[in-house]
């Protein structure tokens, strides 16, 4: 009798557990590290497009702000606009470009919705992992609405590198470039890998046929490896007539002082961030890999 009671109790417990499981579902959530990776991917895209500014906001699946970063030079109001875009993309489960187009086509009544949760401006995109919306990213303050969206999409696409069980884990997939892709890159000088999945490095297939301007990358370390041709490079010293051409990128006319070296195939060089460098003479075509690390 006692055993029957115990078995009955156990069966009821199992049934209760099954009913509970049937009424609830496991839901993935975006972590702070995941939000930061999304922002890094958007910033990498901004660097690639030479975007003059931008505020990047990331919200969770409930529209709550998780992370925000304002690129130097962006107008102050961009923060609230970016948050609104990200929140709208999550709560309505659509890119905000959809709503801007609807209003532009005459359905202006939508513009009367409270702006506390509805910002119908291009530049907000849901962040989706395995078909499930886990957050949203909004960008405001780049050179155009289309560029806002480009940066937001790059950030959202970083989620494809998240593990299905851990939204902050990187994918272990290997990136491969065959000889044809590499040759095509060096034929004109191209970015092989732009760091768009939130990684902190880029890979360039660089080509020079004439001297260039003095360069200073305030955040990126350049790691060079020479494949073909030769060049004279000057590093260090003082830049003349330096000016910003993009966030964290400075160009100048020449270097006063500094150290001069000749580069030939097989040579390698590491140029720390903040150090002026100038390809003063080129015997080309001069082909070299550059790995940029931030």
Number of helices, where a helix is a run of at least 4 consecutive DSSP H or I residues: 6
**Strand-pairing-aware structural class:** alpha+beta
CATH class value of the largest domain: Alpha Beta
Give me the Rg, rounded.
25 Å
Strand content: 25-35%
Order of helices and strands: HHEEHHEEHHEEEEEEEEEEE
- Give the total of beta strands: 15
Q: The CATH topology of the largest domain, please?
A: Beta-Lactamase
Oligomer: single chain
The CATH homologous superfamily of the largest domain is called Haem-degrading domain
Coarse shape: elongated
Mean pLDDT: 83
Q: What's the domain count?
A: 2
**CATH hierarchy: architecture of the largest domain:** 2-Layer Sandwich
How is this fold's topology laid out?
Blueprint: H1 2-23, H2 32-48, E1 54-60, E2 65-71, H3 78-91, H4 96-104, E3 124-129, E4 132-140, H5 145-157, H6 179-188, E5 190-193, E6 201-208, E7 214-217, E8 221-235, E9 238-240, E10 243-246, E11 249-252, E12 254-256, E13 259-263, E14 268-271, E15 277-293
Antiparallel strand pairs: 1-2, 1-4, 3-4, 5-6, 6-15, 7-11, 8-13, 8-14, 8-15, 9-12, 10-11
Helix pairs in contact: 2-5
